[in-house]
């Protein structure tokens, strides 16, 4: 057998023999991209551990005490749910109307056209709709409902926020070099604390030799690095080598099977999506249908809030505050991935509520 | 048709929408060859489109948008340490089996089942080399490695395929 010719023939045969599904709706891809852009742009960097109460779930509780690696127990089917299944809660604290581009912060519409936003503590970062030909995104910085500055030329665009939300850092792409900028955001304007140039920071997302900004601390110390090296730098000082291995691969202290754990702003709790597998189903894929909380390194605090039937398609989660997680709910139509609702779950009360969007009836 | 387009002309760069419409089929076919099943192929292709959108000004301005997108696709595939659907759905119990496309006589596909069983980087090199018909340098660009690494990876993959063919034939005899 001519192995290489057979490979060529078979791969061509397989590729042309498959049924190619229709392309996804571009609008849905764009929405997914904008959502992923915001979710990946902001990373809380807290590591503080706080005590908290034991866990009781609201909808259904899957208490995993003593079984830190166990999957949540599947529950029997319940009646098909709607948003009305949950008590009506307060509107989302931060929301961008995808049709109009209006940014709402605590119910107050902001001037400008926005693609997404996130609020951390009293700080909101709003991501402007891209209008420039080079794709640059302006980022509005809000303290409360007051806009205190606009960031330009942010690489990524990724902005790191310190645990107390009083300091931010980002990288500016100056083509041949990257510049880390650290700023205080406690005043009525974004106040720069210092800048540091490093050629390794030029944005090359797929280049493993490159470095990236990783965290910013409350005192303005940033960590940055890559696969081969790590550094720490505080404005006014000189960079020094540091071990960043613990920072590169996400939060620790959670079950090995937990994926994409998101820490709350203080680092007290982690939350991640888990599956909602129908026990009668065989192998294959199961949709996310539950959220699990746990304090880092404390498996006894782990608990799962499972969405009722009809909500078995949770697309994403983010922390709205130190205690509340918002779940983005999809229609379940994987061809569109449109977000159709939001559910807010409290780690304190172990209860969930629907979170209407500002401006909605 | 592989993920390759004719040489660029003086035409303006395509819009994102135009690109998706024109290149989806090619993108999906390559994704299918990389993943070996429709579910992961669709996720990989869509994830690639999401990343391409986020970098669209650079993609459209590139001398070869297809090469840029191919790099996104292969890196997304090779770097994924887990099932592609894990961000929204997770794999349970058993990995899906490699699909045999409709209309194919399973016995006629001697190598395909073994290609799908290769480690991701080897599989990517095989697909880029023998389906996309890329040079070692082009594959190196797509995977972000040296041509030497491509050469050694391809050699390892071909050796593994020969070994598995020999093993299969030995079991049949």
UniProtKB/TrEMBL annotation, chain A:
Top-level division of the source organism's lineage: Bacteria
Protein name per UniProt: Uncharacterized protein
Organism encoding this protein: Nocardioides pocheonensis
TrEMBL record, chain B:
SUPFAM superfamilies: Sigma2 domain of RNA polymerase sigma factors, Sigma3 and sigma4 domains of RNA polymerase sigma factors
Pfam families membership: Sigma70_r2, Sigma70_r4_2
UniProt domain RNA polymerase sigma-70 region: residue ranges: 26-82
Keyword annotations from UniProtKB, A to Z: DNA-binding, Sigma factor, Transcription, Transcription regulation
Any GO MF annotation of the entry: DNA binding
Protein's GO biological process: DNA-templated transcription initiation
Location of the RNA polymerase sigma factor 70 region 4 type domain: 116-161
Family according to the record: Belongs to the sigma-70 factor family. ECF subfamily.
Entry protein name: SigE family RNA polymerase sigma factor
């Amino acid at each position: 057998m001519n192995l290489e010719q057979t490979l060529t023939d078979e791969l061509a045969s397989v590729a042309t023999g498959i049924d190619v599904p229709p392309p996804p709706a571009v609008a849905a891809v764009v929405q997914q991209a904008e959502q992923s852009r915001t979710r990946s742009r902001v990373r809380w960097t807290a590591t503080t551990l706080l005590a908290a109460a034991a866990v009781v779930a609201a909808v259904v509780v899957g208490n995993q005490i003593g079984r830190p690696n166990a999957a949540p127990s599947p529950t029997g089917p319940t009646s098909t749910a709607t948003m009305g299944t949950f008590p009506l809660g307060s509107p989302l604290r931060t929301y961008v109307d995808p049709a109009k581009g209006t940014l709402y912060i605590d119910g107050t519409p902001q001037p400008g056209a926005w693609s997404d936003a996130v609020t951390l503590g009293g700080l909101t970062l709003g991501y402007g709709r891209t209008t420039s030909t080079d794709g640059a995104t302006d980022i509005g910085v809000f303290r409360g409902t007051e806009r205190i500055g606009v960031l330009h030329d942010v690489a990524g665009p990724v902005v790191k926020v310190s645990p107390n939300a009083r300091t931010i850092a980002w990288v500016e792409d100056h083509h041949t070099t990257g510049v880390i900028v650290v700023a205080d955001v406690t005043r009525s304007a974004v106040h720069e604390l210092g800048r540091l140039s490093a050629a390794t920071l030029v944005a090359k997302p797929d280049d493993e030799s490159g470095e990236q900004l990783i965290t910013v601390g409350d005192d303005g110390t940033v960590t940055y690095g890559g696969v081969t090296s790590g550094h720490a730098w505080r404005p006014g000082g000189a960079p020094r080598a540091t071990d960043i291995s613990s920072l590169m691969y996400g939060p620790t202290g959670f079950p090995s099977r937990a994926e994409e754990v998101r820490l709350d702003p203080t680092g007290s709790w982690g939350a991640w999506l888990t599956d909602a597998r129908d026990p009668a189903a065989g192998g294959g894929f199961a949709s996310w249908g539950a959220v699990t909380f746990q304090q880092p390194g404390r498996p006894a605090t782990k608990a799962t809030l499972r969405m009722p039937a009809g909500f078995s398609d949770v697309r994403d989660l983010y922390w709205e505050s130190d205690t509340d997680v918002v779940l983005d709910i999809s229609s379940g139509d994987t061809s569109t991935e449109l977000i159709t609702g939001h559910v807010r779950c409290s780690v304190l009360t172990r209860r969930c509520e629907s979170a209407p969007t500002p401006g909605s009836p | 048709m592989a993920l390759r387009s004719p040489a660029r002309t003086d035409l303006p760069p395509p819009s994102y929408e135009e690109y998706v419409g024109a290149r989806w089929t090619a993108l999906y076919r390559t994704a299918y060859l990389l993943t070996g099943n429709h579910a992961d192929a669709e996720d990989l292709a869509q994830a690639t489109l999401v990343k391409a959108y986020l970098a669209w000004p650079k993609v459209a301005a590139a001398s070869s948008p297809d090469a840029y997108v191919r790099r996104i696709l292969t890196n997304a595939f090779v770097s994924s340490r887990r099932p592609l659907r894990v961000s929204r759905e997770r794999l349970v119990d058993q990995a899906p089996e490699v699909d045999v496309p409709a209309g194919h006589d399973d016995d006629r596909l001697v190598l395909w089942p073994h290609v799908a069983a290769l480690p991701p980087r080897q599989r990517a090199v095989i697909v880029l080399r023998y389906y996309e018909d890329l040079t070692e340098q082009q594959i190196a660009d797509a995977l972000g490695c040296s041509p030497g690494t491509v050469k050694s990876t391809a050699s390892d993959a071909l050796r593994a395929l020969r070994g598995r063919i020999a093993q299969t034939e030995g079991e049949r005899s």
